Each structure stands twice: as structure tokens, then as C-alpha cells.
Amino acid sequence: MPSFKHKTNKKIILDEKSITTLDGKHKEIEKDFENDKTDKLPNLRAKKKFLSKLLENNDLSIDQQLEIKDNKKKKRKTKKEKKKKKKKI
């Protein structure tokens, strides 16, 4: 009887996509912040300026003005949420 056990030849297969590490999660969050900073926030600013210019136009009905103001508030709120998210982390 042998006094030692033979090693198995089985190899462990790792799926890199399903394993999340601290570094991977950090890179993912940084990429999300960079995406917000370069794409989403400038887009929100541009839409807000456009809506402000539309409000300056006096030819709009009251319903249209209220709708534009609501859209401006939504854009402002999403912008603040994105900034808070970055400060939080």
C-alpha cells in the first residue's frame, strides 16, 4: 500500500466574467463615473439649455411652458443624483 496519494489531473476551469473582484468592481464603477462625466452630464446640460431657450419664447401656451419646466426639473434632478452618487462613493 502506498503511503501517499497521487495528484489528480483535473484542471479547474474559471469563468472570468462571473468572478467579480474588488479591483474589477472598482474599475467598473470608475468607468461608469467617466461615462457619466463625458457623455451623460454634458448631454443633460445641453438639453437644459435648450429647454431654457424654449421657455424664453413667449409664443408657447401655458401647458407647453409647464411641460418644459417639468422636463427641466427632471434633468436637474438626474444631474444631481449622478453627482451625489459620485460623492457618496
List keywords for this structure.
70% helix; 2 helices; rod-shaped; 89 residues; mainly alpha
Q: If you had to describe this structure to a student in words, what would you say it looks like?
A:
With 89 residues, the protein is an all-alpha fold. It has one domain. Helices cover 70% and strands 0% of the residues. It has helices spanning 22-56, 62-88. Helix 1 runs antiparallel to helix 2 (62-88). The mean pLDDT is 81.
How is this fold's topology laid out?
Layout: H1 22-56, H2 62-88
Helix pairs in contact: 1-2
- What about the largest sheet? none
Low-confidence stretches: none
Extended strand count: 0
- Count of individual helical segments: 2
Summed up, the domain count is: 1
Derived from helix and strand composition plus strand pairing, the structural class reads mainly alpha
Overview in brief:
The protein has 89 residues and is mainly α. 70% of the residues lie in helices and 0% in strands.
